[in-house]
Amino acid sequence: MDEEYDVIVLGTGLTECILSGLLSVDGKKVLHMDRNDYYGGDSASLNLTQLYRQFRPDNTPPAELGRDRDYAIDLIPKFIIASGELTKILVHTDVTRYLEFKQIAGSYVYRDGRISKVPSTEMEAVKSPLMGLFEKRRAKKFFEFLQGWKDEDPATHQGIDLDRDPMKTVYEKFGLEPGTQDFIGHAMALYLDDDYITKPARETYTRIILYTSSMARYGKSPYIYPLYGLGELPQAFARLSAIYGGTYMLDKSIDEIITDADGKFVGVRSGTETVKAKQVIGDPSYFGAGKSADGGKVRVVEEGKVIRAICILKHPIPGTEDIDSAQIIIPQNQVNRRNDIYIAMVSSTHNVCAKDVYVAIVSTIVETDRPEQEIAPGLALLGPIYDKFVSVSSLYTPTASGEADNIFITRSYDATSHFETVVEDVNHVWKRATGKDLVLKKRETDQEP
């Protein structure tokens, strides 16, 4: 391992794999290492044996769940927004050739003790129990205002300044009820809490337009999902990196991050071998996360834990018209919390479990010292649960930009139900490591996912 590289990437989570793919395309010589013998790190998809080994080392999976190879269960549940930033990267890099996508069949929101479908058509909106007749008229005017907005045409602004006026002002202008605000802010703009209401309305506007344009793209829901699970995404970007000369080493222990007298990155030691590079990019677990997070390279973020419960079901979620996949959002106001609860359900249609089995993952940001109780409202919506695997993970973020020591650390995967914050992190790390903005140009040959 005497070779010197431009960049060593540690960990094969999605963020790291996207970065190694993009850096390889950019002409950088990349070495990608992972201590695990599978791709994906924290964002991997596991077969049944791997799942039981991770959560219950002494147990083997029950035979009635079927074959190991029929399963690809995500450790971190997220869906891809059809018109979102990850889709743009997939299209730009042409990794869509390695992936097949299927639509998520429905998006739901919990309100007043029941779940209701987020309307995907004008007809569904008219029939939706989420709003009364007069509220529907007000909401229609609100959405028409957003769709008609043109920055350069003050006639479309109706006296609103998106960059100055808080979202609260926009809601009040159209007289929207608190329940409707909840539904728009959490089920469409996909905010985790209500902090956005007092901030300038521009970001919320952008998020709602993204949601509605994604919904319009495929109908039914704004989300798509890769066949064989989310673990396919890092692998697709790893292939991209390999095509452009990237080198991969799985099942490789990372024993030491070597720095010089000034603390600048020099290389990585694995056993008796050392490999050198100009820069290192890696996930927080390679830089003391969970060991010396006090005063080290990473720190726990505020509200720094996420609970996720992977639930195996023998039936679709009740109240969803037996659809094969769904997202359900429980806005925090509905259950007296500060943060929303998310449910993501997929099934054999997505090649992630055996026939007649469904996988639902319930997650939220931890607020108390009894995390499992916090997801009880979500678990209660699932009906009988065949088996359940619960994890509580700390969320880490780097303490420095990395520009001083050439050590660039990514963030942990947050509680959001989509990949927009992952792409945000990719952009930030790219800018810090290369000194330039990540610019995606659409290729002529691209296939849309």
Automatic annotation (TrEMBL):
Highest rank taxon of the organism: Eukaryota
One Pfam family cited in the UniProt record for this chain: GDI
Keyword Amino-acid biosynthesis: no
Gene Ontology cellular component list: cytoplasm
This protein's UniProt keywords: GTPase activation
A GO MF term: GTPase activator activity
GO biological process: protein transport; small GTPase-mediated signal transduction; vesicle-mediated transport
Protein family according to the UniProt entry: Belongs to the Rab GDI family.
Protein known as: Rab GDP dissociation inhibitor
Annotated source species: Cerrena zonata
The organism's taxonomic lineage, starting at the top: Eukaryota, Fungi, Dikarya, Basidiomycota, Agaricomycotina
Gene assigned in the entry: GDI1_1
